[in-house]
Design goal:
This protein is α/β, with parallel strands linked by helices. It is about 25% helix and about 35% strand. It has a six-stranded mixed sheet with strand order 1-6-5-4-3-2. A hairpin with a 5-residue loop joins strand 2 and strand 3.
């Protein structure tokens, strides 16, 4: 999800609710404690220099059970953050405390904002000699097809 998409969504919902990938909802008394700009400048294992920049939201919950973040208040926070985020319509990354700080993507399903899993990946698989997953699956399929014949007992 991009900044423009969450801003639009906040004008359409009556309450702000975040859901974890497990389907569990964050407690209604969560806070948005930070909206920031995160830039990463790195070299992948193939020697390619890369840059990534995202808008980062930090979600947190405390013992103030009467706290509720209204959509208009969240939109106000996002508008204040424009001077930090700049004019680019950035992708959003969300941090939420679990056993350790979890990093998530963000999507929308109906009236809910859904924290989506993020995965690590090798960005230079060709330089590392890691075969394409489709190439790994093909020999297995060929073997299964050869062994699975009518009357062969595999089905």
């Amino acid at each position: 999800m991009k900044i423009s998409e969450i801003k639009q969504a906040l004008t359409e919902v009556e309450a702000v609710s975040f859901r974890l990938p497990t389907g569990e909802y964050l407690p209604a008394h969560f806070h948005v404690t930070e909206v920031g700009l995160v830039s990463k400048h790195f070299i992948d294992c193939g020697g390619v220099e890369r840059r990534e920049t995202v808008a980062n939201f930090q979600l947190w919950e405390a013992g103030d059970y009467d706290h509720r973040l209204a959509p208009a208040k969240f939109l106000h926070i996002l508008n204040l953050s424009e001077r930090i985020l700049g004019p680019e319509d950035l992708d959003i990354e969300v941090e939420y405390q679990q056993a350790t700080i979890g990093k998530f993507g963000l999507s929308r399903e109906g009236n809910d904002f859904v924290l989506t899993p993020k995965q690590t990946a090798c960005l230079a698989q060709d330089a590392c000699g890691i075969p394409d997953a489709r190439q790994l699956a093909l020999p297995q399929l060929q073997m299964a097809g050869a062994a699975c014949t009518p009357g062969g007992g595999c089905c």
